[in-house]
Amino acid sequence: MDNSFWALVGLILFFVIIFYVRGPQKVGKTLDDRAVRIRQEIEEARELKEEAKQQLAEYQRRRREAEVEAQDILAAAKREAALMLEDAQRRNEEYITRRTAMAEAKIAQAETDAIAEVRASAVDLAVEAAAKILAERQAAEGGRFINESIAAVRKNLN
Q: What residue segments make up the domains of the chain, in order of their start?
């Protein structure tokens, strides 16, 4: 009885014990359970992939909506800026018109004041000249006639 015989006996006993404790059934059951678990994980991964695709589509839709909204806001801001610029130009033109009208009115008033001043000076000079002339002519008649004449000239010239 050599070692090969005892190795064969040990091997046969090993197989008998494995069949007795139902080893192949347990291995098969373990492999089947593992296959079921792998199928479940694959199905769960597919569901997660679909959910991720849906979320991606939703985020892309939101991004497009946000871009459209940003463009609308930008367009509205440009329109508002243009309106503000037009309003500022209109107000500037009105301001210039008012200032021009005020300057023209001041010039006209100064012109009127200058004419009135020249007339007043002319009247005063005329009165003085008339008084001098009358004084020379009527030196003998007295001061009454001169005073009456000066008053009449002042009344007529003013």
A: 21-157
